[in-house]
Amino acid sequence: MHLKTLTVSELNLYIKRLISSDIILNHVSVCGEISNFQISSNIAYFTLKDAKDAISCIIYSENLEATGFIPQDGMNVIISAKTTLYERDGRISLNVYKIELSGEGELYLAFQKLKNKMLREGLFDSKYKKPIPAFPQKICIITSLSGSVVHDIITIAKRRNPGQVLTIYPVKVQGIGAASEIIDAVEYVNNRDDIDLIIIARGGGSMEDLWTFNDERLAYAIFNSKIPVISAVGHETDYTIADFVSDKRAPTPSAAAEISVPNIADYKKEVAKLTERLYFGINYIFSGSKSKYDNLYLRLMHLTPRDIVKAKENELKYLTERLITRMEDSLLSKQNQLKGLNIKLKTLSPYSILDRGYAIVKKDETIAYANLLNQGDLLDIIFKDGKVKCITKEVDVYGEKHKF
Amino acid sequence: MEKNISFETALKKLDEIVSKLEEGNLPLEQSLLLFQQGIELSKMCTQKLSGISDKISILTKNPNGVIKETNFK
């Protein structure tokens, strides 16, 4: 049998018809490992391979959206597809309309594979972790506007610090293009100079739902961010690559607000406490100086001449008093002595004998002896009550024997 | 003292001043100077803490891909 010679186009057309008329090739189910997965605007390309062979695949974004996760290189999947021939280069390709993971643990395995790879590359190293500012000037929250995440974060942030400045960068957090949007957001924020903290947040969901946060490119974008990034994806038990590569992982979006926004009430207390200590400190120093001063003042006062003068004054007063007492004593005794002498003097006065009945003989002077007189001498005899004039008749002087 | 220091810096400085003052072995005049600085810092901190703002904004992309910042809600 001799067949007609065909052009390439005719052959390709023939093969194409043949394929499309084959029931099996029209609805084929194939298992294999994904490699070279690439997404362009509304179509994704990848190669499905097994240990020996490979076949190229395409999937349109609407079908990819329906899979619930973003396929990644190394994932073992079962695809449902229609076999087609690309006439332009005569290549057979699978037009995939459904991708399923070939086993329950397949996503987890893919996650582990990527995680181990990045771990080996050192992307999770603590030396690359940037410190979270204690007082962020402006926080950018990269998240979806749907759901309660934005509301939760704002509520908690405002409760902790009513003055906290926040900005929201709305993104898709699930499905095709979500990772790219988040990457764009991180890169955009890094080109601004007013934002000093990024929170990438998403509410809870299945591992498929959170798959965006296991994107390798997103991991690098977070790693390369100059601004510290807090990841807050899903619930406390959910871990994503974004969590490992970010500077801090918050178990939930609410926790991200707790971690990033300072509690003003605590700081107010701290400032009040420090201020109190400040006053106490200066008072202590003052009172110390005051008592030192008081002490010195007292000592100084003891040294002042005023006290010395006062002491001397007291001494002088004492001495004066003593002097006066002495003088008075002495005067009194002199007076007494004088009195005694007066009495004595009175007793000794010649006139006092007249009281006792004696008389005094006078010839100009008092005559005490008979031999001082001669016959005819004119004498005065003085009595107590008067005087008598007499003439001496005879003088008889007693001999020695008769003297009294 | 500079007015534009951050709250953290002001708080740290205040803490240092209080500690220095509490050691109590500085001359009175220097202590007074420290006290004055401390009071200023305390005021500054309190001011910074009492700020209230409604500054929540949203970053949206217009069709030309230009991002604009507008008030949120």
Termini gap of chain A: 227 Å
Q: Residue share in helices of chain B?
A: 40-55%
Number of extended strands of chain A: 14
Largest interface by residue count?
A: A-B, 31 and 35 residues
- Which whole number gives the mean pLDDT of chain B? 85
Structural class determined from secondary elements of chain B: alpha+beta
Tell me the total number of β-strands of chain B.
2
The main pleated sheet of chain B reads as: 2 strands, antiparallel
What is the 3D shape of chain A? rod-shaped
User: Would you list the SSEs of chain B in sequence order as H and E?
Assistant: HHEE
- pLDDT below 50 for ≥5 consecutive residues: which ranges of chain B? none
Strand content range of chain A: 15-25%
Q: So what's the overall shape of chain B?
A: rod-shaped
Helices and strands of chain A: which structural class?
alpha/beta
- How far the N terminus sits from the C terminus of chain B, by CA atoms, comes to 39 Å
| Rg over C-alpha atoms of chain B, rounded to the nearest angstrom | 21 Å
Cα Rg of chain A = 69 Å
Number of helices of chain B: 2
Neighbour order of strands in the largest sheet of chain A: 1-2-3-5-4
Order of helices and strands of chain A: HHEEEHEEHEHEHEHEHEHHHHEEEE
Largest sheet of chain A: 5 strands, mixed, barrel
Summarize the model shown.
The complex is a heterodimer of chains A (404) and B (73). Chain A is α/β, with parallel strands linked by helices. Chain A is built from 12 helices and 14 strands.
Any overview of this molecule?
The complex is a heterodimer of chains A (404) and B (73). Chain A has 404 residues and is α/β, with parallel strands linked by helices. In chain A, helix 5 (149-160) runs parallel beside helix 9 (253-260) and helix 6 (178-190) runs parallel beside helix 7 (216-224). Helices cover 44% and strands 22% of the residues of chain A. In chain B, strand 1 (56-61) and strand 2 form a beta hairpin. The mean pLDDT of chain B is 85. Chain B starts with 6 loop residues before the first helix and ends with a strand. Chain B is of the alpha+beta class and 73 residues long. Chain B has a two-stranded antiparallel ribbon. In chain B, 22% of the residues are buried. Chain B contains 2 helices and 2 strands. Classes of the chains: A alpha/beta (404), B alpha+beta (73).
